[in-house]
Amino acid sequence: MVSISRGTFLKAAAASAAALALAGCSTGSNDGKDSSAAGGSSSADPDAFPVTLESQFGETKIDSEPKKVVGLGWINAEIALSLGVVPIGSGYVGWGENKNHSTDWFDDKVKELGGDQPTRFSETDGINFEEIAKLSPDLILAAVGSMDQETFDKLKEIAPVVVYSKDHKDGWMVPWQDSTRTIGKALGRSSTADDVVKKVESKLKEAGEKHSQIKDATFVASNLSVSEAQPSISVYTQGDGRVNFLESLGMKNSEAAESVKADTFYGTWSNERASELTSDMIYSWVESKDDVEKIKSNDVLKQIPAIAKDAAVLDSDKKNGLGMGNTPLGIEWLVDNTDFIDKIADAVSNGKK
C-alpha cells in the first residue's frame, strides 16, 4: 500500500513539487458545502459528462460534474484550484507550509474565488482514508503522487479516483501540464485546463527570454547535501518538475544529467564522479542557509564544475521549492514575485565565463 513518507515528500515536492486561473467554485471545509461554481453557475464544458479516464489501475467513470472534490497530497488540490474549483479536502503541504498547512498562493486564490479553506488532513503515515471518507467526496484527485492497485481499489470504494494516465509509469514524473489536463478532464474543464497551460507556458517562455544567456544553457537539477561530513549527490531526471521548469525557460538538461538512469524522478550520482557532473549551472534545494557554505566548502562537492565556478543556485527558500514546477499557481507565483529566475541567469553567466 502507498505510504507518503516525509522523505518522499521532500524529494518530490520540495525544491520539489501553484496557481491558477479562471472561473471559481466555492467549497466548504467543515460545513457540508459543495464545490459549486462561484455565483452559482457551472464552468464545466458543455457535454463534458459522462467522461471515462483510463489508467493502469482501471477505468474511472464520472457521470456528472463533481461537487465535492478531495485532493491527495497538496499538489492535486492546487491544480483543481487553478481551474476554478476549490476542493473540500486536501493533504497538508507538510514542508514549507504556512499556518494553514497550505501555500500563500493557494490561500490567495481561495479568497479570490470567494471560497472556504478545505479541510486539511495529515498524511504522515500514508493516505488518510478515514479523514477522506469523513468528507464524503464525489471525486478523489490523485493525478500526481504514488499509487498502487490496492490503494486505488480502496479509494474507489469512497469515490471515483483520478490518477495519472498509462503514459506515465510513476506519479511523481508527471509534467504539470499533463496533470492539469487530466484533472481538467475529470472536472469537465478541459478548455480551462488548456488555457491555463498555455498561459503559464507563455509566462515561463517570456521570463526566459528576458535573459539571453539562459537560452540553450545546460543545467543540472539536483539535491546536494552534507550530513555528518558525508556528501551526497542526487540528480533529478526527465519528468521531474524542476527539470520541466528549467527547460521551459529555454535551458537544456545537461548530458551528464541525461545519463542518469532511474526508475523514478531522481537518481544518485557517485561522489567519485563529482568532477564529471558538468553543466553551465547547477540548481539544488537545501534545507537551510547553513547548508550552502557546507556544500561550497566540501572537498567532494566543490569538484562539481558549476560549484567551483560559483555557477550554482543553492536555494533554502522552501516557498521557491514548492512553487517550482509543481502546479500552475505556484509557477506563476515564483515567476511574478521572486528573483529566482534572475539568480538562475546570474549562475549561467558565471558558468559560461
From TrEMBL:
Q: Which GO terms describe its cellular component?
A: outer membrane-bounded periplasmic space
- Keyword check for ATP-binding, yes or no: no
Q: Which PANTHER family match?
A: FERRIC ENTEROBACTIN-BINDING PERIPLASMIC PROTEIN FEPB, IRON III DICITRATE-BINDING PERIPLASMIC PROTEIN
Q: Which family does it belong to?
A: Belongs to the bacterial solute-binding protein 8 family.
Q: Using the record, list the residue span of the signal peptide; answer none if the entry has no such feature.
A: 1-23
GO biological-process terms attached to the record: iron coordination entity transport
Q: Which Pfam families match?
A: Peripla_BP_2
Q: Is Zinc among this UniProt entry's keywords?
A: no
- Annotated protein name in UniProt: ABC transporter substrate-binding protein
Keyword entries, A-Z: Signal, Transport
Gene3D superfamilies attached to this UniProt entry: Nitrogenase molybdenum iron protein domain
> In this entry, which stretches build a coiled coil?
none
Domain of life of the organism encoding this protein = Bacteria
Write out the annotated subcellular location: Cell envelope
Instruction: Give all residue intervals belonging to the Fe/B12 periplasmic-binding domain.
Output: 68-352
Q: What is its main location?
A: other
Q: Which InterPro entries match?
A: ABC_transptr_periplasmic_BD, Bact_iron-sidero_bind, TAT_signal
